[in-house]
Here is the input.
Amino acid sequence: MDNELQKAADKFLSGQDGKKLAGKRGDIERLAASPDGERVRSALNNSGFDDAVRRGDAAAVKTAVENVLKTDSGARLMASLRAMMGKG
Here is the structure.
């Protein structure tokens, strides 16, 4: 992972929200396995997200995620995640 992406991930995971997410692993796994989670995963795969992460292309990763979040499935998945985190 690119140093910039790694730093961002480390910063998030060491913060309050990252720690809260870590405590909800089972809930997150169920959300990821849901129909919306599957659709989001498929859309990310089709957008070249994995390759962008491997290359450390933060701009491409951001664009892929933003585009997926604009879909109905992405919006529902994000709403579920926010509710899980107590922010929705």
In short: DSSP finds seven helices and no strands in the chain. The chain has a mean pLDDT of 86. The longest helix spans residues 72-84. Residues 17 and 23 are 10 Å apart (CA to CA).
